[in-house]
Amino acid sequence: MRKRLLEQQHTDPADFYTGIVAESYAPLKSFSPDPEIYAAFLHEAGTPALELGCGDGDPLLALRLHGLDVEGVDSSADMLERCRRRADAEGVSVTVHHQRMEALSLPRRFRAVFLAGPTFNLLPDDGTAAAALHGIRRHLTDGGSALIPLHIPSPTPAENLGRVRTAVADDGAELRFSLVSEKRDETLRTQTALLRYERHGAGAPTVVERPWPLHWYPRSVFEELAAAAGLTTVSVTDPDGDAAADDAAYMVFRLRAA
Ligand SMILES: C[S@@+](CC[C@H](N)C(=O)[O-])C[C@H]1O[C@@H](n2cnc3c(N)ncnc32)[C@H](O)[C@@H]1O
Hints:
This protein is α/β, with parallel strands linked by helices. The protein folds into 2 domains: 6-15 and 154-215, no CATH class; 31-152 and 217-257, 3-Layer(aba) Sandwich (Rossmann fold). The protein has 6 helices and 12 strands. It has helices at 20-28, 35-45, 60-65, 77-90, 126-139, 219-228; strands spanning 6-8, 49-52, 70-74, 96-98, 110-114, 140-151, 165-168, 174-185, 190-200, 206-215, 231-237, 250-257. β5, α5 (126-139) and β6 form a beta-alpha-beta unit. It is globular. 33% of the residues are buried.
C-alpha cells in the first residue's frame, strides 16, 4: 500500500509560522517591509522600541543596523532562531523574546511599539486583539506611540486555488506552496485559507496542510478596542501616509498611550 504523505495540522494561529512554514518563509517571500517607513516612525516616536511579530528579522535587523534601540517579539521559536542566525551573519546584536503579543510580559517599557505590515490581522478574534492592545498599552511609556497596520483581506480569485509556487531550500530541496481552499465569514470577520506546504528533497517528501486565519476590523470597531485598552487614535492613514477613507482596505493606525 502507498504511504499517505499528507499531514493535516490544526496549529494554533500563533504557531502557524513553525516547522516547514518557517523553513519556507524566506525562500517563498515575495515582499519585505520597507525599513525606512519604520525608521521614520521611530525617529519621530522615540526609542526604545518594540517590534511585535518580528519573525526572521524584517525590518528589525535593518533598524538595528541603523543603530536604533529596537527589540523584537514573536510567537514562533523557529522564526526567532532564523532571526538570531541572520543577526550573527550580519554582525548585529539583537534582543528577541519568544512570546505571544496577546500575553506580552517584558521587564521594560518602550516609547514605541509597532508591527511591520498587517501581522495584527493574524490574531483570530476581537478578544485576542483586545488582550494584545492591553499588552501594548502596559508596555508603552505614558505618551508613547503604537503603529498598527491593518487590512481587510479580499477573497482569493477561484483561478488562484491550487496554483503552486516553488522555491529552493538551503539544502537544495524543492519547496512548494499552494492555497487549497478558503472560507470567509462576514459575521465573525474571518477569512481562513487552507495552505499546503511541501518539501521534496532527499528522503521522503513532506506535505503539510495548515489553516491560516485572518481576522479584520471595521475602523470604528478597532478604534473602540484601542480606546478600551487606553490607546487613543491619533491618525489613520493609507500606505502613502494620506488620510485613509473610512472603508479603506488598508489602514495604518497611529495610537497614543493615554
Ligand atoms: C507574516 S510574518 C512577518 C514577519 C516579519 N515581520 C516580516 O515582515 O518578514 C508574521 C509573524 O508574526 C508572528 N506571529 C503570529 N501570531 C503571533 C502572536 N500572536 N504573537 C506574536 N507573534 C505572532 C509569526 O510567528 C510570524 O513570525
